[in-house]
Design goal:
The complex is a heterodimer. Chain A is built from no helices and 11 strands. Chain A has strands spanning 4-7, 10-14, 19-25, 32-38, 44-51, 56-59, 62-67, 72-77, 86-93, 99-101, 105-110. In chain A, strands 2, 4, 5, 9, 10 and 11 form a 6-stranded mixed beta sheet that branches. Chain A has a 5-stranded antiparallel beta sheet with strand order 1-3-8-7-6, with no helix packed on it. In chain A, a hairpin with a 4-residue loop joins strand 7 (62-67) and strand 8. The N and C termini of chain A lie far apart (41 Å). In chain B, the strands form 2 sheets. In chain B, strands 2, 4, 5, 6, 9, 10 and 11 form a 7-stranded mixed beta sheet that branches. A 4-stranded antiparallel beta sheet of chain B has the order 1-3-8-7, with no helix packed on it. Classes of the chains: A mainly beta, B mainly beta.
Chain lengths: 111, 113
């Protein structure tokens, strides 16, 4: 059974810092990995999708990497802003079922 | 192109009543997924459907829960005889094909009193 772990569970940094969020998964047989952000009381916004054959994806100040063999992904956020404050979720797709989610990293960017 | 739509956004039911949650996928998407987020817990997969077919329901509770995605109209998640433990946020996602990016709706927050 796939398990996804996200470290740290919470993170608070001053505005402008670069930061890294970590995600690990136990079964390397995945189709893809998605990073989402969730704002309080809201739905999920997809940030980046990495297919199993890819090593990384970039969108603006966000960069996600995938090392399938070691079961790890990182989300790098450059030049953080207060608007980046949210919960960041990592999820993997392993088969004909849905995504398996981590519990998220709660990120606070201090102005 | 409108995103994934869910209604109602908030639903209050008394114990023993039925709850019906609706999800309209993005235009052109024929794959729908339902997830549940319990308070202080992560999102858990419930069921994966294509038009008129249930592809995987391995995450669905065995009793009281059912889902459908008819040829016409939205996908429906139905919870019969609700109990307090069913209180949660229920999210729907859609994708154009099975292993493509999933796009999530705003969720339905169910409260059972």
């Amino acid at each position: 059974k796939q398990e996804v772990t996200q470290i740290p569970a919470a993170l608070s940094v001053p505005e402008g810092e670069n930061l890294v969020l970590n995600c690990s998964f136990t079964d390397s047989a995945i189709y893809n990995l998605q990073w989402f952000r969730q704002d309080p009381g809201k739905g999920l916004t997809s940030l980046l999708l990495i297919q199993s054959s890819q090593r990384e994806q970039t969108s603006g100040r966000l960069n996600a990497s995938l090392d399938k063999s070691s079961g790890r992904s990182t989300l790098y956020i450059a030049a953080s802003q207060p608007g980046d404050s949210a919960t960041y979720l990592c999820a993997v797709r392993g088969g004909a079922d849905g995504l398996t989610f981590g519990k998220g990293t709660h990120l606070i960017i201090q102005p | 192109n409108a995103g994934v739509m869910q209604n109602p956004r908030h639903l209050v039911r008394r114990r023993g009543q039925e709850a019906r949650l609706r999800c309209s996928p993005m235009k052109g998407h024929s794959h729908v997924y339902w997830y549940r987020q319990l308070p202080e817990e992560g999102l858990k997969f419930m069921v994966y459907l294509q038009k008129e077919n249930i592809i995987d329901e391995s995450g669905m509770p065995k009793e009281r829960f059912s889902a459908e995605f008819p040829k016409e109209g939205p996908s429906i998640l139905r919870i019969q005889q609700v109990v307090r433990g069913d209180s949660a946020a229920y999210f729907c996602a859609s994708s154009p094909q099975g292993d493509y990016e999933q796009y999530f709706g705003p969720g339905t927050r169910l409260t059972v009193t």
